[in-house]
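so my prof wants the structure for this chain in the tokens format not the other one, which i didnt know existed until like an hour ago. anyway here's the sequence
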Amino acid sequence: MHPRPSPIAAALYTLRDMNVDVIVMHGPKGCCFRTSRLLESDGVRVLTTGMSENDFILGAGEKLEDTLNKAYEMFHPKLMGIVGTCASMIIGEDLEGAAENADLDCTIIPVEVHAGLGEGDNTEGAILVLKRAAEYGVIPEEEAARQIEMLRQATEVEKTRGMAQGKYIKPNFGDNKEKIGNIIVDSIRDGRKVAFVLNVKKETSYLFADILNFDYRKINPDNKPLFIGNLDENIGLPRIRSHAVNVKANLKEESNVEFDYITGGLDEYPITANKAEEILKEYDPDLTVVVGVPHALKIENVPGESIAVTDGPRLVEALREDGYDHVVAELDAHSKTLGVDSIVDSDFGMMIRSIIDWQNED
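here's what i got, hopefully its the right format
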């Protein structure tokens, strides 16, 4: 009942992950404005055909062809995407035909997406891009099929345990970060078994990994926490694999954090949570901290006290209902991590490091 991310935005982000040089949005100037501007930070040029009222009636095929030509003249891309919008798709604009008529010396992926695609789930936009990319030979068919299965499972997680449950969820900014930070630091200092689960997606890993970015030896050198993460650099699109490489290298260099278990890739967070859950059952922790997409993990099956760290105020109550004892909310994870290639400061990560410093001063 409350607004959800759009399939159009998901299509834009998925094209970004394929390292397209330029995306042309066929629609009004304001459609997905925020997403388009954020993607500029990731080096993707996003243009719009700027459809107007007359175009809604008479069509804007020539306007799309003109924009494609201008985009090529300005940026000389090797790979472009065309993304539909509600306006252009309702009137049946031919994105593929416009690309063929433009006849540019580059690969163009046309994506006939709109905000109501399928049931309106944002993952439908990403799925459509993957199918189209496979058709155009940009990615292998088997890779498209693997990622589509992950997206289907991600949708199921959101509909059963996340923000897409079909009811209104009041925003909640979670528990006090200093209080929860003290629980973590005191648990390590007191010799309790502590486990950290990094179950993250895409570039948001740069923010959520910061919560693990402290040296446990400054707290209790004899009590190393267990570190679990979905940071397999051999799985996913090139951009996604590079995020996994960077995050592991950053944590090792800055805080001597090494992962005891790698559960899968950054685009596999719906199933890597299941693997983490099995590891935790065997480890039998006193405290488990799950960051990124904590609602993918069935915390009710894990022994001990639990902390979830999420990127959405609308997920806080859902996570409490799932069984987490404490929930911390990080804000603006996507906007803070676009265009970066190393870990960025998180509010909760900085709080944990400050608590360690304060206690060591005492």
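also thought this was worth mentioning. The two ends are 50 Å apart (CA to CA).
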